[in-house]
Amino acid sequence: MTSVAMQSPTADPGLLALLERLDLFRGLPPAELCAAVRAAGYRTLARGAVLFREGDPADALYVLTQGRVKVTQLTVDGVEILLRFVGPGELFGCVAALGERVYPGTAVAVEPGMVLRWESKVIAALLESCPHLSQNVLRLLTGRVLELQARLRELSTERVERRIARALLRLACQAGREAEDGVLIDLPLSRQSLASLTGTTLYTASRILSRWEQQGLIASGRARILLRSLHGLTAIAEDQSLDH
């Protein structure tokens, strides 16, 4: 069971305005949007809050409205593998809407935020009564499948350097902020996490990142990575030669 106690949200104008911008609720008539919000529970998350654990009953669908959440799995050897980071406006725990019995991973808040939660039976009723919501969910899940297919293709066909460069550029789009010398990925991203995210070993990821630091492409420290040359990383991600 989830370790997060949920409360009922109020359909205040600020929350409704926020949700209207999310892909899940885009285009919903005001009455249907209000009904969807009232059917949800919500909680303000502290860093480290666990939404659900791998193997827990898949009893709810979540939307993150603020903050960041990481989704991980454990290997048979007990090693934690980072699957993805969830940003504001993204669905997670989607298996609850698909009738699956358990969550395949663990979801943990990596920074303070807020989450909305719909129990499985509630989301089923909403999808049945709101055709536009059903279409939005279908589009989002289709996008997730295409994303997973692209990730699998990367893992099976691309060099490790390209995979790491692509991962850093994706994370920069999701959670990057302008810094004095480049773009800072504002997430607690260790080299081990980056290795698991790109399907390689800690040794290989560390070797590549160290080389890129020497080349001036990145700077790293304290589980943070600064991208100093988006052009250089893009060239690697696209398998182009670098001009030095």
Averaged pLDDT: 85
SSE series: HHEEEEEEHHHEEHHEEH
Percent helix, as a range, is 40-55%
Q: Which fold name is given in CATH as the topology of the largest domain?
A: Jelly Rolls
**Strand content range:** 25-35%
Q: Report the principal-axis shape.
A: globular
Structural class: alpha+beta
The number of helical segments is 8
Number of domains: 2
The overall strand count is: 10
Contiguous low-pLDDT stretches (5 residues minimum) are: none
Give the CATH H-level superfamily of the largest domain.
Jelly Rolls
Describe this protein's structure.
By secondary structure, the protein is an alpha+beta fold. The protein folds into two domains: 13-154, Jelly Rolls (Sandwich), CATH 2.60.120; 159-237, Winged helix-like DNA-binding domain superfamily/Winged helix DNA-binding domain (Arc Repressor Mutant, subunit A), CATH 1.10.10. The protein has helices at 13-20, 30-38, 120-129, 131-157, 160-175, 191-197, 202-214, 230-237; strands spanning 41-45, 50-52, 60-74, 80-86, 91-92, 106-119, 176-179, 182-185, 218-221, 224-227. Strands 1, 2, 3, 4, 5 and 6 form a six-stranded antiparallel beta sheet that branches. Strands 7-8-10-9 form a four-stranded antiparallel beta sheet. Strand 7 and strand 8 form a beta hairpin. Helix 3 crosses helix 4. The longest helix is centred in the middle third of the chain and has 27 residues, at 131-157. The mean pLDDT is 85.
